[in-house]
From TrEMBL:
Classification via PANTHER family: THIAMINE THIAZOLE SYNTHASE
Species this protein is from: Acer yangbiense
Protein name listed in UniProt: Thiazole biosynthetic enzyme
Matching InterPro entries: FAD/NAD-bd_sf (IPR036188)
Alphabetical list of Pfam families matching this protein: Thi4
Top-level taxon of the source organism: Eukaryota
Length: 251
C-alpha cells in the first residue's frame, strides 16, 4: 500500500480511498440483509447480539455507558453483524402491506432536510426490520412515527406517567411484530401502547431486545424461544415474556 513511517508525504486521498471504499462496499454488501435493527441503544444492541448467535442470520444496525460499550465490543466481533454509524433511517420500504426494508441517509442530512437541498438516500432491503428508536424526541420513536404517517398504525399516544411496578414488564410483554415485517422493541414500545415510563431502571430494554430477536427468528422461520423451538441459554424472563397471558408475563 504505502509507507507512513518516516514519511511526510501521506496523501489524504489514499486514506480516504481505503476508508471510503470499505464503508461504501459494506453499504452495498448489506443492502440486502435478513434483519435491519434501527437504533443502537440498549434494546437494539441486545436484539442484534441475540440474533448474532445464529450464524445463518445476517443483520445490520444503524446505529450508543458501561453496558452499551461492553455489548458493542462483543457485537462488533461477530461475523454476521454490521454496524453503520452516522446513518439514520428516514423512511421505510413497504410492499404489499409488509415492511420490506429501510431508506437510509447520513444522520446529519436526515436531520437537516429542511435547511438544505435534497440528497439521494440509500436503501437496505430486509426480511425483517426491528425498530428500537427509543423515546419520542428529535431522534426518537421514528419507526412508529413513520408507520403512523403512512397509515399502517392509527396512533402514537406516547408513554404514560411513571409507574415502576408495571412499566418494565409492559415493555417486555408488548414487544412484538406490530405490522407485518416490523418488530418494535425498547422504550419505543411505550410510545405506541401508552405504557408507563419507569425511570432509570432499564433492565427491560435488554430483555425486550432479546425477545425482539426471537420474534425476528420466528418470522424468518428459524428456531426461536417464542414457539419453543430454540435450544440454548435464554434469560428466564424471556420465557415469561413470550407467553401471551399478561397475567403470567407480569408475574
Ligand atoms: C424523556 C426520557 C424519558 C426516559 N424515561 C425512561 C424510563 O421511563 N425508563 C427507562 O428505563 N429509561 C428512561 N429513559 C432513559 C433511557 O432513554 C432508556 O432507558 C433507554 O435508553 C431506552 O433504550 P432504547 O434502546 O429503547 O432506546 P435508546 O437508548 O434511546 O436508543 C435509541 C437509539 O436509536 C437511535 N435512532 C432513533 N431514530 C433513529 C433512526 N431513524 N435511525 C437510526 N437511529 C435512530 C437513537 O439515536 C438512539 O441511539 C428516559 C430517557 C428520556 C430522554
Amino acid at each position: 500500500m504505502f509507507d507512513i513511517v518516516g514519511s511526510n508525504n501521506i496523501r489524504v486521498i489514499f486514506v480516504f480511498d481505503i476508508v471510503g471504499s470499505m464503508y461504501m462496499t459494506d453499504m452495498i454488501t448489506y443492502a440486502d440483509t435478513d434483519v435491519v435493527v434501527v437504533g443502537a441503544g440498549s434494546a437494539g444492541l441486545s436484539c442484534a447480539y441475540e440474533l448474532s448467535k445464529n450464524p445463518s442470520v445476517q443483520s445490520s444496525s444503524t446505529l450508543l455507558d458501561l453496558f452499551t460499550s461492553t455489548i458493542m465490543s462483543k457485537l462488533l466481533a461477530r461475523p454476521n453483524v454490521k454496524l453503520f454509524n452516522a446513518v439514520a433511517v428516514e423512511d421505510l420500504i413497504v410492499k404489499d402491506g409488509r415492511v420490506g426494508g429501510v431508506v437510509t441517509n447520513w444522520a446529519l442530512v436526515s436531520m437537516n432536510h429542511d435547511t438544505q437541498s435534497c440528497m439521494d438516500p440509500n436503501v437496505m432491503e430486509a426480511k425483517v426490520v426491528v425498530s428500537s428508536c427509543g423515546h419520542d424526541g428529535p431522534f426518537g420513536a421514528t419507526g412508529v412515527k413513520m408507520l403512523k404517517s403512512i397509515g399502517m398504525i392509527d396512533s402514537v399516544p406516547g408513554m404514560k406517567a411513571l409507574d415502576m411496578n408495571t412499566a418494565e414488564d409492559a415493555i417486555v410483554r408488548l414487544t412484538r411484530e406490530i405490522v407485518p415485517g416490523m418488530i418494535v422493541t425498547g422504550m419505543e414500545v411505550a410510545e405506541i401502547d401508552g405504557a408507563p415510563r419507569m425511570g432509570p431502571t432499564f433492565g427491560a430494554m435488554m430483555i425486550s431486545g432479546q425477545k425482539a430477536a426471537h420474534v425476528a427468528l420466528k418470522s424468518l422461520g428459524l428456531p426461536n424461544a417464542i414457539d419453543g423451538t430454540y435450544v440454548g441459554g435464554i434469560h428466564p424472563e424471556l420465557i415469561l415474556a413470550a407467553v401471551d397471558s399478561a397475567e403470567i408475563a407480569e408475574a
